[in-house]
Amino acid sequence: MLPRAFEHLESLYSEMVAIRRDLHMNPELSFQEKRTPAFIANYLKELGLEVKTNVGGNGVVGYLTGGKPGKTIALRADFDALPIEDEKDVPYKSKIPGVSHACGHDIHTGALLGVAKVLSQLKDEIEGNIVFIHQHAEELAPGGAIAMVKDGCLEGVDAVYGAHVEVNYPIGQIAVNDGYVQAASDAFDITIHGKGGHAAEPHWCIDPLVIGSHLVVDLQTIVSRRVDPLQPAVVTVGAFHSGSAHNVIPDKAYLKGTVRTYNKDVRVQIENELNLIAQKTAEKHGATVDVKYSKGYISLYNHPKETAYIKELSIDIVGKDNVVIKPPDMGGEDFAYYVDAVPGSFFWVGGGNPEINAIYPHHHPKFDVDEKSMLLIGKVFISAVLNS
Length: 388
Hints:
Layout: H1 2-11, H2 13-25, H3 35-46, E1 50-55, E2 59-65, E3 68-78, H4 105-120, E4 127-135, H5 145-150, E5 159-170, E6 174-176, E7 179-182, E8 184-193, E9 197-198, H6 208-226, E10 233-241, E11 248-249, E12 252-261, H7 264-284, E13 288-294, E14 300-302, H8 304-318, E15 323-325, H9 336-341, E16 344-352, H10 373-386
Helix pairs in contact: 1-4, 1-10, 2-4, 4-10, 6-7, 8-10
């Protein structure tokens, strides 16, 4: 059945490309998706699947009941775009100013819809059930995954799998890894309340710029001196704004940044340390401070058994030399909420190809990938279902 399924998927390639390019030309931002989920829902309904819409917000879930008893496997694709201008010179360039699929979510959706079409025509032979999770709002916290899980998209699911096209790997490669592979992603906003005045009379002022400068440096000691060196962690101040004149000491200064961690205890520790350092740094200079700490995605943990399964299937598809281990990184991905609820694994499929200018990084205005990556995503998904 697997060779037949692969042949069918390959015969659908032009249709998958057409879907991907339609989505690419009509991108929608996180939590603002309307056209895309409607398109997905209609496509799945035409396949004869049971479809739920507005799952956790704008999410869509399709259900396929196999003809024989077996496990229930969930497959996930995300479909939101980014607030980035599309600067590619291609026929399928975004038609929406300032919005583009600069991360490949259109690729993920095209692949999963192709998989749904293949498997829907094999339903009588399939052992078990398949849940097709089409998720909104991966790019913007709190994300769509946590709401979809709370809304029941994983009820009865035994394992869940997700994929991401990756331009840093060439077309034809698949990357896997188990354990923690991506970080919890939090954000902080700090407002320092000082006392403004004339720049020539600093002794009458409480200078929030000086205090903020101390704070930027002091926050670096959290990772370098307070967190266990064997625990990955990042604290980065990404913005520092204050004042607008040469000769004026402002009243306030604003800092914002990000915290990345794997370990849950370290995550709590850094939040506590950041609040303490901000308060004490302001206090010693006679200022006050407000700290807003926003929890983002949890860290993504790939279960060893399910990851070994995906690795084995990938070797069968592309050969041992084309399956690589992806090092863990400090990026965030809300697929973490699915594998926090049920066993599963998230893998990466190469989409880089200099011959078609697919060389620019994710979130770049000229980002693009080789569309044949959809076939590899699809083949791993199909294998995961039919071999379960």
